[in-house]
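ok, trying the design again with the full structure, not the truncated one.
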């Protein structure tokens, strides 16, 4: 096996766009949530595992998340990753019920990430964390993180204590992202209590399936609720090959139009741009985090356009070097591969 090199000799740099880190402040807040008697069951299942399970994978991940220095750079070098676009790991602030503490966790994370970006300007870029529970303060922190710290996106770890971004209470967050011309990355969270029951019972609540169902629905709600008609320039990023939405697109279009025509649901009104796919092709960017799979990548390029499909690794949760080797070897024109690995990300996240 030849280890892929950084530096772009294959004709493109590899920019990984959904890469996770943690901070001591976040881990402390997670610990307090885990100890609470009414802890969210999805959070307990996911973060209880990563913080405390003795198996090799969770131990590697817990250590790697907390390293924003030489250990991370070495792992990038060993996988041919030129640049990571970093985001505070899921569910980050979204699960914290103490809003002041959630805000403090976001601010300290943005400051720590900005320090790492200054230390390794060619290797790290970042997304702004915020605590959407208080949308006004979140909007302020987004503005600070983008304009003063150089963040190129906003990370929102899907549902916020069981609520979704189409809820008007979060409008200031969407407004801030749109005004600053940065995308919102809707990253997975475990399903909320109202959704998780049968998934948890079967061990399917996490990244294997529950993440995608919950986050795909979140993205779809942003469309069908008319929220993107209220924010016509807002751009959204979703990972994991679009959380299955591209594969569903034909049926989503058909059933959405049928539902709108019949007036079945009060909440489902006609949309300005038309179909669900019109929105996917004009408001969404899709990364291949956790889905290093040539047929799915090509299918998504065909379904929504090759300018909107981007590479992501999902370090440290899923980071075998074999995936990089397989993606380098995709049967795809070099120009398209360069968009996928490098230039789509440079444009979207404002990397010079
Ligand atoms: C997992 C996967 C965990 C992803 C993550 O954050 C995460 C996992 C806690 O495998 O449990 O970001 N992921 O995006 O696929
Ligand atoms: Mn992830």
């Amino acid at each position: 096996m030849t280890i892929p090199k950084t530096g772009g000799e294959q004709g493109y740099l590899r920019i990984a766009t959904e890469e996770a880190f943690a901070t001591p402040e976040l881990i402390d807040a997670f610990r307090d949530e885990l100890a609470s008697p009414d802890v969210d069951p999805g959070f307990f299942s996911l973060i209880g595992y990563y913080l405390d399970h003795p198996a090799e994978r969770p131990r590697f991940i817990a250590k790697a998340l907390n390293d924003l220095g030489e250990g991370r750079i070495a792992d990038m070098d060993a996988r041919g990753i030129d640049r990571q676009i970093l985001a505070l790991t899921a569910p980050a602030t979204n699960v914290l019920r103490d809003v002041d503490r959630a805000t403090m966790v976001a601010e300290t994370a943005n400051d720590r990430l900005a320090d790492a970006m200054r230390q390794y300007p060619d290797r790290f870029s970042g997304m702004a964390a915020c605590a959407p529970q208080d949308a006004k303060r979140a909007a302020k922190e987004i503005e600070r993180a983008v304009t003063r710290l150089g963040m190129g996106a906003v990370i929102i770890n899907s549902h916020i204590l069981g609520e979704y971004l189409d809820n008007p209470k979060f409008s200031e967050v969407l407004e801030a992202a749109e005004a600053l011309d940065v995308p919102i990355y809707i990253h997975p969270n475990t399903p909320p209590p109202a959704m998780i029951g049968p998934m948890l019972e079967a061990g399917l609540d996490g990244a294997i399936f529950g993440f995608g169902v919950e986050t795909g629905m979140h993205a779809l709600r942003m469309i069908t609720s008319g929220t993107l008609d209220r924010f016509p320039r807002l751009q959204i990023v979703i990972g994991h090959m679009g959380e299955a939405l591209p594969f569903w697109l034909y049926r989503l279009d058909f059933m959405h139009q049928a539902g709108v025509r019949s007036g079945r649901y009060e909440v489902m009104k006609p949309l300005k741009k038309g179909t669900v796919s019109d929105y996917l092709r004009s408001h969404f960017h899709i990364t291949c985090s956790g889905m290093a799979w040539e047929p799915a990548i090509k299918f998504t390029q065909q379904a929504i356009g090759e300018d909107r499909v981007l590479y992501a690794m999902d370090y440290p949760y899923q980071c075998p070097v074999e995936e990089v080797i397989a993606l380098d070897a995709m049967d795809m024109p070099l120009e398209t591969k360069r968009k996928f690995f490098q230039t789509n990300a440079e444009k979207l996240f404002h990397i010079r």
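Keeping the full-length input from now on. The first strand starts at residue 15 and ends at 21.
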